[in-house]
Write a structure and sequence with these properties.
Layout (H helix, E strand, L loop, with lengths): L5 H25 L6 H19 L1 E6 L8 E5 L6 H8 L3 E5 L8 H7 L3 E3 L4 H16 L3 E4 L20 H6 L3 E10 L17 H9 L4 E7 L10 H13 L3
Parallel strand pairs: 1-7, 2-5, 2-6, 3-4, 3-5
Antiparallel strand pairs: 6-7
Length: about 250
C-alpha cells in the first residue's frame, strides 16, 4: 500500500480539528458554569493537548511553568498556534486583539476560555485593559500577553510595547518571560510551517501547519522577574533582552 500523501493527512487532520473545536465550544457552553476554576484549567489544558495531537504537533516544555500565585507571562509571538501551545503547557488568561473575535469558531472558543480582548489601536482601550489585567492579577490569575503586538517570523524579537506591563507593576505581580519556538522534531532546526506573518492568510497558515511533518512546539519558561523599582519601559527592555537569549 502506498504511503498517505501529506494532502490527504492534512484533510483528515482538518476534519478532526474542526470537530474538536465544535466539541470545545459545546464544553464551554454546557460545563464551564458548573466547574471550579481548577477544573476549567484542567479541561483547557487537556483540550489543547488533544488538539495539538490531532494536528500532529508535538509539545516540548522547558523550565518550570508557574502553577501557583498570580503572574504575568510575556511571550514572543509567531503564530495563531501560540495560544494553543501555551495553554497545552499551562493554561493562562490571554490578552488578544479584538480581531480574533471575528475568526470563525476560534473566536467563540477563545472568548469562552476567558480571553481578554483589546482594541490595539486605541490608547483609551489600552488603559482599560491595564486596569482589567491588574484586577485579574490581584485576584490570583495568570495572565499572558504578546508585547511585540504582532507576529514575527521566529528569527528574532520585534520591539516590545511596554504599556500592558504596567498591570504587573500596579498589581505587584512577577513577570515570567516565555520563549516559543517551532522546530523540526529530530534536528531541532527552526520549522517555518506555523509562521503567520505578512500577507499570509489565517486559512493558508492553518493549512501549511496541518501539512507539516515532524513539527514540535517548544515552550521555554525562564526565571520570573519582579519590578524592583523599574518602570514599564525599562522592564520591557530587560524582558526583551532575557527572551532574546533563548528564542
Amino acid at each position: 500500500m502506498s504511503p498517505v500523501r501529506p494532502r490527504t493527512v492534512a484533510v483528515w487532520r482538518m476534519l478532526r480539528a474542526t470537530a474538536h473545536v465544535v466539541h470545545g465550544i459545546w464544553i464551554i457552553r454546557t460545563r464551564f458554569d458548573r466547574q471550579s476554576p481548577e477544573q476549567i484549567e484542567a479541561t483547557v489544558a487537556q483540550w489543547s493537548r488533544d488538539m495539538l495531537r490531532i494536528m500532529g504537533v508535538q509539545l516540548e516544555v522547558r523550565g518550570q511553568a508557574p502553577t501557583t500565585g498570580p503572574c504575568l507571562l510575556v511571550s514572543n509571538h509567531i503564530s495563531w498556534l501560540d495560544i494553543l501551545v501555551i495553554n497545552a503547557a499551562q493554561p493562562v488568561r490571554f490578552v488578544s486583539k479584538a480581531d480574533v473575535l471575528r475568526w470563525p469558531l476560534i473566536g467563540q472558543l477563545v472568548a469562552g476560555a476567558g480571553t481578554l480582548f483589546i482594541e490595539r489601536e486605541s490608547r483609551r482601550d489600552a488603559l482599560r485593559m491595564v486596569q482589567l489585567m491588574a484586577e485579574r492579577l490581584q485576584a490570583g490569575d495568570r495572565v499572558a500577553v504578546f508585547p511585540e503586538g504582532t507576529t514575527g517570523d521566529g528569527r528574532g524579537l520585534l520591539p516590545f510595547h511596554p504599556n500592558l506591563l504596567q498591570s504587573a507593576i500596579a498589581a505587584d505581580a512577577p513577570i515570567v518571560p516565555v520563549a516559543l519556538r517551532y522546530v523540526k522534531a529530530n534536528s531541532h532546526e527552526r520549522h517555518d510551517a506555523p509562521v503567520f506573518v505578512g500577507t499570509t492568510t489565517l486559512v493558508a497558515s492553518i493549512w501549511t501547519t496541518l501539512r507539516a511533518r515532524e513539527l514540535t512546539a517548544v515552550v521555554h519558561y525562564t526565571e520570573a522577574q519582579t519590578a524592583e523599582g523599574r518602570d514599564r519601559r525599562a522592564w520591557a527592555q530587560d524582558l526583551h533582552n532575557a527572551l532574546s537569549r533563548v528564542v
